[in-house]
Design brief:
The structure is a homodimer of 159-residue chains. A three-stranded mixed beta sheet of chain A has the order 4-3-5. Chain A is globular and about 50 Å long. Chain A is α+β, with helices and mostly antiparallel strands. The first copy, chain A, contains seven helices and five strands. Chains A and B meet through α3, α5, β1, β2 and β3 of A and α3, α5, β1, β2 and β3 of B. The first copy, chain A, binds a DNA duplex (25 and 25 nucleotides) through residues 1-2, 30-36, 51-53, 65-70, 72-74, 91-93.
DNA sequence: GTACGTGCAAAATATTTGCGTTACC
DNA sequence: GGTAACGCAAATATTTTGCACGTAC
């Protein structure tokens, strides 16, 4: 791992961007490694929202020896530290709900529990409010992320 | 599979509820089977939002021979037909996003593509608007589900 | 009676982990 | 130099599928 990182990153991650990434890593207590730079740069320059596996494919073009495990490990860390955003899509690890009343969800970031919540204000949100550029929006869901009462207590005690 | 379904369902699914379920199945073109009744009843009587595996455990108490595959198959069908709601949680099959600007997501129900969308109205939604009962809401995300332009075109042509 | 649904077991897919080596600070 | 990170490969976890048999309508 003695390659020139700037040349690896090329024009998708200019030197200032690399310095900015190094600073953000320091802020959250992560080492600034070539792998992390390339993963982050690849994600930043992606217009779509790649999965870990797709991103690994792109990153390998620049660091052919990088492992999928490293991509998974670092994406988890980036999400945990708030450097990137994880988007939950359907299927895997899905949870199910047969509550027929209009409601929204609160998801605990710590224990992943799901709580139903009722909000007249959110119920009133219209599909038309999303400027959707050709996308046919059929349904809108509002989800709050945070800490459930149990995990909030635990976190307070740990600290 | 000649057991008495009413006794299997017990008080968690009264006879009227069973009839109601049969009607809803008919409406969406699904056969009314004992497995489906029990899966649906178990979900309806769950206060939490169980995963497929957890639900399978509960359903097995009533139908010990039911397979996990049947639970997966039927949950997918129920979601597809709108009888139950699938809640996407973090981790598995996650997609990632390094867009630092405040934005929301549109997810295509057909191809699972994710599109960023900007909405001043949604950005203005406050955390305080969710009556959260002890849950510490740190972040709110609005997600629209529907058909992306590409899939909408395809669906129109298929029909 | 026929098409659909189920159980079983195997396959496919996705994600995590242990461990020896290497690189960051 | 010590700790954190990496690559590799194996282990887990999750979800889907083929097939033979049984059941709903």
């Amino acid at each position: 791992m003695s390659e020139n990182v700037d040349s690896i990153l090329g024009d998708q991650a200019s030197v200032p961007a690399a310095a900015e990434f190094a600073r953000r890593c320091r802020d959250v207590g992560l080492a600034d490694t070539p792998q992390r730079r390339v993963i982050f740069a690849a994600l930043t320059s992606s217009k779509d929202h790649p999965s870990a596996e797709v991103l690994h494919g792109r990153v390998k073009e620049r660091l052919p020896r990088i492992s999928l495990a490293t991509v998974y490990r670092n994406l988890s860390l980036f999400v945990e530290k708030g450097l990137v955003d994880g988007v939950a899509t359907a299927s895997s690890h899905a949870r199910f709900d047969a509550n027929p009343h209009k409601h929204h969800h609160l998801i605990c970031k710590s224990c992943a529990s799901v709580t139903d919540v009722y909000s007249a204000a959110y119920d009133a949100l219209g599909v038309d409010r999303l400027e959707s550029g050709g996308f046919e929006v059929q349904e809108i869901k509002v989800t709050g992320y945070g800490l459930c009462p149990r995990c909030k207590t635990k976190e307070t005690n740990d600290a």
